[in-house]
Amino acid sequence: MFNKEEIFEDIYSSPDAPQMVEEMYNHLKAEQKRRENFYNEIDEQQKVEFINGEVIFHSPVRIEHNDVTGQLYKLMDTFVDIHELGKVGFEKIMVKFPRNDYEPDIVFFDKSKSKNFEKGQVLFPIPDLIVEVLSKGTEKRDRGIKFKDFENNGVTEYWIIHPFDKFVEQYILQKNKFELAKKTNNGYIESKAIKGFSIEVDAIFDTKKNRLALSKILKEE
């Protein structure tokens, strides 16, 4: 991980510091203009993100990715709805970070944030929990720029799911750093951000166990 203090010191101690700062300012100003254009040009049919000045278009997902995302969303959304804990979003919820805009596979906002959502809203605040289901095309970003951005901006919990190897990595924010709380393909996983939400890991991948987990949640209603 990079050290911000060391980078600042390297720039500040350089005789070219004023020119470097001016170039960075101009670069970020131009990037912000591209971001404004991005907001004006995107539509609901696309899954697209704005990352470090670049517009990232996503390819269609494999069926395993779709199944895993849908099954976990079903459980999370039902639980959150029954217990009135906030809002769960799926696939096309664009979340706005200081520099970047993402459309994670699943997001959760607690009530303090979701109570302020309005009809027709298309940009959303930083979530409390983010889930990304890995694919070959996204893994580098999911583990790289997104991981660091989520960590730096206070996302309480981040799940990375492997749809083919069928296991989950759960990261919890501890002292402003993501700590690996669990990496498993069996047993139970309990969310920190969604209070009381605990499921068998197999329920994310197995249709029959997903139905059983959903039935258990519905009995709590």
Give structural notes.
The protein starts with a helix and ends with a helix. It is built from 8 helices and 13 strands. The longest helix has 25 residues, at 17-41. The mean pLDDT is 93. With 221 residues, the protein is α+β, with helices and mostly antiparallel strands. α3 (63-83) runs parallel beside α8 (207-218). It has helices at residues 4-12, 17-41, 63-83, 111-114, 139-143, 145-152, 202-205, 207-218, and strands at 48-51, 54-57, 86-90, 94-96, 101-102, 106-110, 123-124, 129-133, 157-162, 167-174, 177-184, 188-190, 198-200. A hairpin with a 4-residue loop joins β9 (157-162) and β10. The strands form 4 sheets. A 6-stranded mixed sheet has the order 3-6-8-9-10-11. The protein folds into 2 domains: 4-41; 58-218, tt1808, chain A.
Class based on secondary structure composition and strand pairing: alpha+beta
Distance between the termini: 44 Å
Shape: globular
How many domains, as an integer?
2
Order of helices and strands: HHEEHEEEEHEEHHEEEEEHH
| Overall radius of gyration | 19 Å
What name does the CATH topology of the largest domain carry? tt1808, chain A
Beta-sheet strand percentage? 25-35%
Measured as a percent range, the helix fraction is 25-40%
Main beta sheet strand tally, sense and closure: 6 strands, mixed
Strand tally: 13
Give unreliable regions as ranges: none
CATH superfamily of the largest domain, by name, is: tt1808, chain A
Q: Which CATH architecture of the largest domain?
A: Alpha-Beta Complex
By CATH reckoning, the class of the largest domain would read: Alpha Beta
Q: Output mean pLDDT.
A: 93
Strand order of the largest sheet: 3-6-8-9-10-11
Count of separate DSSP helical elements = 8
